[in-house]
UniProtKB/TrEMBL annotation:
Its EC number is 3.4.11.18. It catalyses: Release of N-terminal amino acids, preferentially methionine, from peptides and arylamides. Monomer. Gene3D superfamilies: Creatinase/methionine aminopeptidase superfamily. It is an enzyme of class 3 (hydrolase). It comes from the Bacteria. Its cofactor is Co(2+); Zn(2+); Mn(2+); Fe(2+). PROSITE patterns: MAP_1 (PS00680). GO terms for cellular component: cytosol. Belongs to the peptidase M24A family. Methionine aminopeptidase type 1 subfamily. This is Methionine aminopeptidase. Binds 2 divalent metal cations per subunit. Has a high-affinity and a low affinity metal-binding site. The true nature of the physiological cofactor is under debate. The enzyme is active with cobalt, zinc, manganese or divalent iron ions. Most likely, methionine aminopeptidases function as mononuclear Fe(2+)-metalloproteases under physiological conditions, and the catalytically relevant metal-binding site has been assigned to the histidine-containing high-affinity site. InterPro entries: Creatinase/aminopeptidase-like, Pept_M24, Pept_M24_MAP, Pept_M24A_MAP1.
Length: 278
């Protein structure tokens, strides 16, 4: 049974109940999420051939320190880096290292800052130099999946409406949706209820209510949806080594729809791609 609870009276752990946040909580999330969005903006000119993901990791750590925030991933369940950098066929949780990015790569950079106790969680895809049209198309499809998932958010709908909107579009574009990972509640906790599946049916899942805060972060593959986790216990890759992409926003359900907390202040929500028409 799905239960909902006023976030102010809920214990600071994932109990399975869905927290409902108030206006002051939304203000805290805006601040944390905008810091994350600013960091992702600052990375746009940095992501180019020859740059290492370790250098990106150092930048994310230092940017957080300069702004009074901690990277949520640092020492989270044994993870030793401040950011996740997932390249080409890496679906998520790629660990930064000293290997340089190459021309034609695509990389997802996933940043979460903890600021005043609030978690600002977002990720974007970055093309490295000149990328092939197939990769560019995957980025376009994945970003559109994110937008369609967000458009499905409103009080009274169910979480399955988000998944249905994403799955319907992705599969119509001959891509597949990763099932092994999902969006999640976020706020005072890094990972909270509910889970936000990126596939499914509109009639399924918990009802969306004003005050809920969660991430939508579809992972879309050019090939089949199957993934495997490597021996390091973190890095998830496509089993068929097909390209994969992901974009992520943190959103809060409002009386009429939702607020996107992690929008780029510089207009770089889909860096390296042509501006959206209209």
């Amino acid at each position: 049974m799905v239960t909902y609870i006023d976030a102010a009276s809920a214990p600071l752990k994932n109990t399975g109940a869905i927290r409902l946040y108030g206006p002051e909580d939304f203000a805290g999330m805006r601040k944390a999420c905008q810091l994350t969005a600013r960091c992702l903006d600052e990375l746009v000119p940095m992501v180019k051939p020859g740059v290492t993901t370790d250098a990106i990791d150092r930048f994310v750590f230092e940017f957080g320190m300069d702004n009074g925030a901690l990277p949520a991933t640092l020492n989270y369940r044994g993870y030793t880096k401040s950011v996740c950098t997932s390249i080409n066929h890496v679906v998520c949780h790629g660990i930064p290292n000293d290997k340089p990015l190459r021309d034609g790569d695509i990389v997802n950079i996933d940043v979460t800052y903890v600021l005043d106790g609030w978690h600002g969680d977002s990720s974007r895809m970055y093309p490295v130099g000149e990328i092939k049209r197939a990769a560019e198309r995957l980025l376009e499809v994945t970003y559109e999946c994110l937008l369609r998932g967000i458009a499905a958010v409103k009080p009274g709908a169910r979480t399955g409406a988000i998944g249905e909107a994403i799955q319907t579009y992705a599969e119509a574009e001959r891509c597949s949706v990763v099932r092994d990972f999902c969006g999640h509640g976020v706020g005072k906790l890094f990972h909270d209820s509910p889970n936000i599946l990126h596939y499914g049916r509109a009639s399924e899942g918990p009802e969306l209510k004003e005050g809920m805060i969660f991430t939508i972060e579809p992972m879309i593959n050019l090939g089949k949806p199957h993934v495997k986790v490597l021996a390091d216990g973190w890095t998830a890759v496509t089993r068929d080594r097909s390209l994969t992409a992901q974009y992520e926003h943190a959103v809060g359900v409002t009386a009429t729809g939702c607020e996107i907390f992690t929008l780029s202040p510089g207009g770089f929500d889909r860096p390296g791609l042509p501006p959206l028409k209209g």
